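Lab meeting, item 3. Inverse folding demo.
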């Protein structure tokens, strides 16, 4: 297992992170997974044995049950693991049971600490943008929680480029702790993050944690053109996270993954994960699984190396047209592009 620096912090995290959204199976999250304490213990054991040192959860997963299970499983070995959780989503019926206000964030941290059975959270992430709470309030609350020793690092998740850059600017101007990372969706099937979020990461020295790196299973290899998906799988028309805008292109990507995987004697899923781990700015992939077999397969991706030709093939089959202003910059500003700019524009020059 490789360990990479998380942004400009001194923290080093494994290239694979154990995701726990399948833990609990309560409410709407039952459709994602129904992992109980016994199976969760087995999965975390496998992850730790493979060298994973970061476990990611959120207060909204199964109404807090995911955090409770994670806390129970980590009893007696908490100090050997980095714990990340999130808050911001609506978790109750009250007017302050969501958002990134000081009130909600402080209460969320206190509740998460209790469920996780710990006295600190290593990485606390704002789960989603809140356009109604002043950033000064959100960032000051996070800064005070760091000074109180209840959280150690802070990150963002699902922000747009301008929202994240504004957050960093406010933190710098006020002397607050800035976000060290962003948790985003980024796959061969959905490469929008390359347009703004990845260049921003490189320019501002953030870390990237990728959620759902197999696009909710779309890139696992079990969804093929003219092949019936396994029983119990979702239909593509039911998929909304991530949405499928071009079904034909998705199948072209999967075909390439399967062929490259066959050449290495590994699964298409491992190839998709290995491609992501080689992309600029990516620190760690948050992997989760319904079964032990899926998790074991995903963990093996940490040791898979793709050739330059294989990467080029995957780049090409998943490529998207440059939006404005990037196509204009590629045509007229190529002599003054930074490494952050080139992370997107270099293939088009």
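The presenter then showed the designed sequence:
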């Amino acid at each position: 297992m490789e360990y990479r620096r998380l942004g400009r912090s001194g923290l080093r995290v494994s290239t694979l992170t154990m995701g726990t959204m399948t833990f609990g199976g309560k409410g709407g999250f039952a459709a994602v997974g129904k992992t109980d304490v016994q199976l969760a213990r087995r999965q975390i054991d496998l992850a730790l044995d493979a060298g994973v040192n970061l476990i990611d959860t959120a207060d909204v997963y199964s109404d807090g049950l995911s955090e409770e299970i994670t806390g129970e499983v980590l009893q007696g070995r908490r100090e050997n693991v980095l714990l990340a959780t999130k808050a911001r989503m609506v978790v109750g019926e009250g007017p302050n049971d969501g958002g990134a206000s000081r009130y909600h964030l402080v209460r969320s941290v206190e509740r998460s600490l209790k469920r996780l059975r710990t006295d600190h959270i290593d990485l606390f992430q704002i789960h989603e943008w809140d356009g109604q709470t002043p950033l000064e309030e959100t960032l000051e609350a996070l800064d005070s929680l760091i000074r109180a020793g209840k959280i150690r690092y802070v990150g963002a998740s699902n922000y747009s480029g301008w929202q994240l850059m504004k957050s960093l600017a406010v933190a710098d101007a006020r002397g607050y702790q800035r976000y060290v990372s962003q948790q985003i969706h980024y796959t061969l099937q959905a490469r929008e993050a390359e347009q703004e979020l990845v260049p921003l990461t490189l320019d501002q020295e953030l870390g990237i944690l990728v959620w759902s790196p197999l696009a909710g299973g779309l890139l696992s290899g079990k969804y093929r053109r003219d092949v019936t998906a396994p029983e119990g799988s979702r239909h593509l028309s039911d998929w909304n996270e991530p949405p499928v805008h071009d079904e034909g292109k998705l199948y072209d990507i999967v075909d390439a993954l399967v062929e490259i995987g066959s050449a290495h004697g590994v699964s298409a899923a491992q190839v998709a994960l290995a491609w992501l781990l080689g992309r600029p700015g990516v620190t760690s992939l948050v992997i989760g699984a319904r079964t032990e077999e899926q998790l074991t397969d995903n963990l093996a991706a940490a040791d898979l190396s793709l050739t330059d030709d294989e990467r080029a093939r995957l780049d090409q089959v998943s490529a998207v047209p440059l939006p404005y202003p990037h196509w204009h910059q590629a045509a007229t500003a190529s002599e003054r592009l930074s490494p952050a700019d080139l992370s997107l524009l270099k293939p088009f020059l």
